[in-house]
Amino acid sequence: MSIETEVLWLDEHRVVSLRELLELSGLSESELLDLVHSGAIPVSDQPGVGYTFGAHVISVARTACRLRDDFDLDAHGLSVALRLLERVHDLEEEIARLRAELPR
Amino acid sequence: MKYTDYYAALGVERGASADEIRKAYRRLAQKHHPDVSKEPGAEERFKEIAEAYQTLKDPEKRAAYDALGSRPQGEEFRPPPDWAQEHGASGAEKFSYEDLDFSDLFSRFGGGGAGRRAGGPLPGQDFEVPVEISLEDAFRGTTLSLSLSMPEYDAAGVLRRVPHNVKARVAPGAVDGQRLRLPGKGGKGFHGGRDGDLYLEITLKPHRLYRATGHDLYLDLPLAPWEAALGATVEIPTLSGPVSLKVPAGTSAARKLRLAGRGLPKPRGGAGDLIAVAQIVVSGEVGERERELYEQLALASSFNPRRHFAEENA
Predict the structure, then answer these.
(1) Does B211 contact A at CB distance below 8 Å?
(2) Which fold has domain B210-313?
(3) B188: helix, coil or strand?
(4) What domain range is A55 assigned to?
(5) What's the helix, strand, coil split of chain B in %, to 5?
(6) Domain B1-112 has CATH 1.10.287.110
(7) Which member of B35, B180, B213 has the closest CB to residue A8?
(8) ipTM
(9) ∠ CA(B86), CA(B90), CA(B95), 5° rounding?
(10) Which residue among A55, B77, B262, B307 is least crowded, i.e. fewest CB within 10 A of its CB?
(11) Among B35, B50, B185, whose Cβ lies nearest the Cβ of A85?
(12) How confident is the model over B219-268, as pLDDT tens digits?
């Protein structure tokens, strides 16, 4: 018997704090801030005290942690890898959209 | 449990040096890492590689692994009774091989294992699970029933595989690649550590009619030549039921006819669009009367669909 559980959407509408993102990602504060300062992890536009993030970046930060652990990447390497992955993701979305427009 | 040949997984000899093992891991990880490769089976292959590396890179774990001897891949076996104690597994006196996978066996050697933390809190493991749902489920929302097996420490600090049944309500509006977090539904924390989370990544199953991109849906709309030329009102299927669509006169193939708000709902209100892409189709069998009419049309019409060929060559 299992009880229906709470589901959180990881989208840009939900905001998470720096502390929450650190806890969920497994990155250290200095690693996360390096990625923020390099622009690889965007901060939320919402005004407030300190950094806040859209919940969709939880996946990005977790990916960064995985890449750090699996490839021994430093902050610079992580930043480059995340930006390249973002470009790949954008291109894949564009391909998917163009494919959707093509008749079968 | 089934024996796993970690040296074979990394493609190295049993006597390989630590440097050779590290290089082999890096080469294979770059090829198969799930964040890098989208090849089918890449994630499973990477898990094998990572599991092998986690054991072979640690001298204590490697020594314990080597002590099991070389066996055929996948052979059913059980470690010797004193193996864990002889090789310094933490909490070896409580070591049990029940409910364990081979991959869990080395977690209590070297730097790993709950017993190494001297009673300190150890957070539960997070898990990421891909989930495929139908377009209809994405439209209406759905309740997922997941049966998962997670390695977790019991009260005595012994790692076991524990079945988890999780029910999760996914509200309408999930799109391909949507990620969801189920707090506390991952592995159990140990010694007061927080429970891990479960992350779901949604993919949409291919649909026989619609192609989804974000919240928009594309639908091929076959039209007879006269419907395209003269215009028509046609009934088209949507996820909420059939609707009438006015096709303007003079519609060419590939023209997009947009039905606002008839795509997938958005979680915060509104919906994507349904985009019908016109296709002009002709019957493979043309009757005698139809042929006559087509021939009359051909004689009467001055329309040249390839006029731009001549313009480009001029």
Answers:
(1) yes
(2) HSP40/DNAj peptide-binding domain (2.60.260)
(3) coil
(4) 15-101
(5) 30, 25, 45
(6) yes
(7) B180
(8) 0.90
(9) 75
(10) B307
(11) B35
(12) 999 999 999 999 999 999 999 999 999 999 999 999 999 999 999 999 88
